[in-house]
Write a structure and sequence with these properties.
Blueprint (H helix, E strand, L loop, with lengths): L4 H11 L4 E5 L10 H6 L7 H4 L2 H5 L10 E8 L16 E2 L8 H20 L4 E4 L7 H7 L4 E2 L5 E2 L7 E8 L18 H5 L17 H7 L15 E3 L3 H4 L26 H5 L3 H7 L9 H16 L5 H7 L5 H15 L10
Parallel strand pairs: 3-8
Antiparallel strand pairs: 1-2, 2-7, 4-7, 5-6
Bound molecules: cobalamin (B12) and iron/sulfur cluster (2 copies).
One iron/sulfur cluster binds next to helix 7.
């Protein structure tokens, strides 16, 4: 029997280099009924791209009335490097997803290649690609397409890839038969909820982003609320804790090969070295890296907090330099860190 169009499309996606592929209908998946109330409860904080586009994010047919199917893809980004809790205690932590080249660029290039290939298979068709680049709730559509099941940590989980995969989509006017969603994979486990140092889960499957270290160190542009700074521990960009403890990530059967290979110095980075980056050095170091999103002022703000949390007096000279930085945000966090070091026990690592 000849392959259906959906099967040929999915084969082409795997040949293009994606690790996961599935098809969802364009109708809003059931979970999206929750999106507006999540935003209304304030959990999105200052992420204006979420709060200002609730209607578009809640149903992609608002933006694309012509859509007939959503081709959802996943790219594994795991690499053979330790988990955050295995890192040396005197180091900082950059989240695993940000060690290599920016996934937005990698994903977009692969999706463009795939779209060109699909035009050869299906003839001319209308499409719009997303690689975390616009108002689409990627997890909800990917879950509907069977790429993974929502974990209690709100990441999508796959039995073989764990949660170490990025999502991307081609919204198309192709009539592709949809896949079935996966069943829940968490059962009675609560490891991710228990480990979160800032208490960012008001309930299983619900994240209050304003308490999440990933939000505080990447998305929040101003001062980090003082009460949350100790919980940030050694994190300077993103956080992996609620994924590192997930049993589905302990198997690590698939790795991304060279595609997302870690750049030098980003796995458990040296805090003093990061603290010494001026604007030029930051731009060179994080060109085409996800870390550029925080800008130098955000990263050095975070480095100051991590130094303050380290309990290590060796960071005092670097913090004194940051306390005289040209940027007031960096100065304020460095002053807080100096004060915290003065009042803390040696070698106190509160969240590790
Ligand atoms: C905003 C955002 C963030 C925010 C908020 C995260 C969040 N969980 O919402 C912050 C900055 C905190 C963040 C952090 C991270 N992010 Co982010 N982020 C996004 C973004 C841009 C939008 C997500 C969104 O719409 N959130 C809003 C909430 C409402 O949506 P939701 O989590 O899907 O909520 C659903 C569930 O709560 C749900 N639900 C499902 N089942 C159930 C059951 C019950 C009982 C209930 C009540 C609800 C419920 O209904 C909601 C949908 O309406 C997406 C890309 C995109 N365009 O979609 C990437 C994305 C989700 N992020 C991603 C990644 C990799 C991360 C980090 C791992 C990075 C890091 N290491 O620091 C962390 C993970 C933190 C975590 N535990 O989620 C990946 C996730 C891949 C995957 N396998 O899941 C995405 C898909 C980007 C990509 N293209 O790959 N992120
Ligand atoms: S990424 Fe870190 S701070 Fe955010 S919910 Fe997970 S464990 Fe908590
Ligand atoms: S740690 Fe446990 S509860 Fe959390 S996502 Fe993984 S399996 Fe689910």
């Amino acid at each position: 029997m000849s392959q259906s169009l959906a099967e040929r499309v999915k084969t082409a996606a795997l040949e293009a280099g994606f690790d996961l592929v599935g098809v969802a209908r364009p109708d809003a998946p059931a979970e999206l009924a929750f999106f507006a109330s999540w935003v209304a409860s304030g959990h999105a904080g200052e992420m204006a791209y979420l709060t200002s586009q609730v209607e578009r994010r809640s149903d992609l047919r608002v933006a694309f009335p012509w859509a007939r199917s959503v081709l959802c893809v996943g790219l594994n980004y795991d690499t053979p490097a330790p988990y955050s809790r295995e890192a040396p205690g005197d180091r900082g932590w950059i989240a695993r997803y940000a060690w290599g080249d920016d996934y937005h660029d990698v994903m977009a290039a692969l999706l463009d290649r795939l779209a060109a290939r699909l035009a050869e298979i299906a003839g001319p068709f209308r499409s719009r690609r997303y690689a975390d680049t616009g108002p689409i709730a990627e997890k909800a559509y990917a879950a509907a397409a069977g790429l993974g099941a929502y974990g209690k940590n709100t990441c999508l989980l796959h039995p073989e890839h764990g949660s170490w995969f990025f999502l991307g989509e081609l919204v198309t006017d192709l009539d592709l038969s949809p896949d079935a969603p996966r069943v829940d994979m968490c059962g009675s486990c609560t490891a991710c909820l228990d480990v979160c140092p800032t208490g960012a889960f008001p309930a299983p499957y619900v994240l209050d982003a304003t308490r999440c270290i990933s939000y505080l160190t990447i998305e929040a542009k101003g001062a980090i609320p003082e009460g949350l700074r100790p919980g940030i521990g050694h994190h300077v960009f993103g956080c992996d804790l609620c994924q590192d403890v997930c049993p589905w990530n302990r198997k690590r059967r698939h790795q991304a090969g060279g595609r997302f290979a870690a750049r030098d110095g980003l796995v458990a980075p040296d805090l003093a070295e990061l603290a010494s980056l001026d604007a030029g050095a930051f731009a060179v170091r994080f060109r085409r890296s996800p870390v550029k999103r925080s800008k130098r002022r955000g990263l050095l703000r975070n480095v100051a907090v991590a130094m303050g949390n380290s309990g290590d007096a060796a960071h005092v000279p670097a913090l004194e330099r940051l306390a005289a930085d040209e940027d007031p945000l960096v100065r304020e966090h460095a002053a807080w860190a100096l004060n915290r070091l003065k009042n803390s026990e040696p070698d106190a690592f509160p969240t590790r």
